Amino acid sequence: MRIVQIANFYGASSGGLRTTLDALGRGYAAAGHERVLVVPGRRYAAVRSRADGLRVTLPGLPVGGGYRMMVSPRTLRRLLLRLAPDSLEVSDKLTLVHTAAWARARGVRSVLFSHERADAILAPRLPGWVPLAPLADGWNRRLAAGFDAVVAASAFSCAEFARVDAPAVHRVPLGVDLRVFAPPRAGAGVGAAQRAGVRLVFAGRLSAEKSPALPLETLRVLRRRGVDARLDVLGDGPERARLQRRAAGLPVRFHGHVADRGAVAGLLARADVALVPCPVEAFGLAALEALACGTPVVVADAGAARELLAPGAGLAVGDSPGAVAEGVRTVLGWPEPVRRAAARRRAEEFPWARTVAGMLRVHAGGAP
């Protein structure tokens, strides 16, 4: 089967989108399928590798934050005609919807991978008085009617399509690289008992919808309550300068975008608690990667990240600094070996191989 994946906003700092597409692509290729990835870039290019298949870059328009967007539907459609996919996987709910009609007209199966909820996409772009639910529902009806199948990674993400009675929605949870994201070797001694202070970590894009200010204010509350805590912030985005000003006087280190996945894993593993405060997470890949490193999480009590919790692996809390701080203190009160083992054990339920197998069943026309 030739599976063509297409996505806009795929770049060096794309985070979960890039991680997911790359992991799926390698899985498709390893399973003996022909994988092609089409993404925007500075200029046209085509690179093939045994592990990843063929990657085609089409000229894209810069749209800020290091991202680009393919803006010529005609160019993309001509490329798709040459590629002749058996199944088309679209990772874009806004700008690449036109490809569903192209696929249907040619008898090509089309699968939309819903990486974000429509209401979460629309909320920061519309005035507060605009009713989001009717707009999101109307758009989701169009998506469900246009694509042969819709895939979402969590119950939270599936819910927006269930609300409009979409006929072919499949839940396929994402995965984690359990070799890269792993606890430190025995005897490495990363816990609070082996060093002074409590280490917190936040990993994610520094944009408003991710609530990146909440970890800073949580740290402020903890220190006010006598907890010797510090915070590592992994990621970049439009809020970084404002956050750095807000963090003045606090023990916070802004690492920026960390391209080396091993380095990210090391920072997660050295933390005592990972904070995932975004209330509209479509899955919670940052939480899963922390769990895989044996680091318990404190997540928002809204959104999908709470679905990843298991007894002893973390807590879901409200969206105030006080609530998050109390959650951190509760988690730290659990025996460290127990909470770290529980975190890793939960992550081991989400290998990428399971995600790939589920997606291949969807591409073949079945249920995951």
UniProtKB/TrEMBL annotation:
Sorted UniProt keywords: Glycosyltransferase, Transferase
Domain of life: Bacteria
All residue ranges annotated as the Glycosyltransferase subfamily 4-like N-terminal domain in the record: 15-178
InterPro entries for this protein: Glyco_trans_4-like_N, Glycosyltransferase_grp1
Gene Ontology molecular function: glycosyltransferase activity
One GO term (biological process): carbohydrate derivative biosynthetic process
This protein's name: Glycosyltransferase
